[in-house]
Amino acid sequence: SENQQNPGAITALCTLALLNSGVPNDDPKMKKALAYLRTFSADNVGTTYGTSLHLMVMTVAYPRAEITRIKNYAKWLIDAQNQGSGGWSYHARFNSDDPSNTQFALLALHEAERVGVPIPAQTWDKAHQYWLGRQQRMGGWSYNVNGLATGSMTCAGVASLVITSRHTSTEAASIVNGKVQCCGPVPDGNAIDRGLLWISQAFSVQKNPGSNSYYLYYMYALERVGRMTGQRFFGQHDWYRAGADHLLNIQDDLDGSWRTRGNPLTNTAFSMLFLSKGRRPVVISKMRYGAAGQTDWDKHRSGIHKLTRFVETRWQQDLTWQTIDVQAARLEDLMETPVLFISGYQSLLLDDQQKINLRNYVNQGGFLFVEACCDDQVFDGEF
To answer: What's the alpha-carbon Rg for the chain, to the nearest Å?
Structure first.
C-alpha cells in the first residue's frame, strides 16, 4: 500500500532496498515493481521524497536506458529547491524547507551526477550553505532550528555536507592550463569533523540518539555517513558490525520484517539498506597517521573516493573504501584491505609497532600504494 501523499514512494524505497541487496532486475517480482515505477513521471510524482526515491531506483536499475527519466527527475529537484534557504520541502510549491527532505534531495542529485547528469553549481552551493547554517555549536543538527540535536539529523547533515563539499570546496588538487596542480591548501572540513565527533560521542545502534523515534531511518542515515566518509569506526565503535548484529537480533523470525515503531515496509527497507553495505567489497583503504588535527596524510581529501568511483564504473561492481587509523589498527585490521593508500607530506610519524604492522601487512600479501605529496623529499626518505 502506498502513502497517497508521496505517489510510488514506498514501492520505490522497497525496490531500492531489494536492488541494493542484490536482487537482479530480471527477477519476476522486480520486473513488476520496476514496470510499475516506470508508469510515473516527474510531473505526477510531484514530491521531494517521491521524486528522490524514484530517481535513485532508476540510477541503480537503468542508469543508461532511463537517462532521460533521470534527467527529468533531477530537473524537478533542482527547480524545487528553495532559492532563499537552499533547502527542500515536501512540495515545490511550499516556500519552506526541512532537513529530512533536503537530505533525500541531495542523495538523489548525488546519484544523478554519478551517472552523468550535470547539476548546477549553485544548487550545490546553496545546499552547502543551508547545512552549514543549521549546524549547532556542539556539532550536531536538529530537525527544527532550535530543537535538540538528534542522530538521524546529524547523520543527514554530515552526509549532505560530504556531498556538497565535493562540489564546492577548493580542492588541494586542480587543473591549471591543462596541468595537474596538487599542492594547494587543504579544504576546511571542520563542519564535517565536528559532526563526526558528535556522532562518535552520542553513538548508538539501539536507538536514534536524542530521539525516541525514527530509529531505522537513523540507521540508514548512519550507513550513508559511514560509507561516504570511509569511516570504519566512529570513535571506538565499529559501527557496521555493531549495527548489523543488533538489526539481525531484532528481525522478526517469522516473516523477516523489522517491526519497531512505524510502517514495517519502510522499516524493513531501511534495515536492508543498512545491511547491504556489507555486500560492497573494500577495494582500498586510506591510512590516517599523526597527531589529531594534522592533515598531511589527507591533502587530497576526495582522491580515494573518486578513484573508487572510477574503478566501480570500469569493473561494473559496487565497491567501497575506508579510512584506517594506524594508531588504532591491528595487523588483522590492515589485512582486511587489499590495497593500503599512504599519502604524505613531511614526516610519517610512525612508531616501531606501526612500522612492524606495515611490514607484516606487506609480507602477508598486502599492497602499499604510496604518494609523496608535492614530491616531498622528507616523506619520500622516511618511507
So the answer is: 21
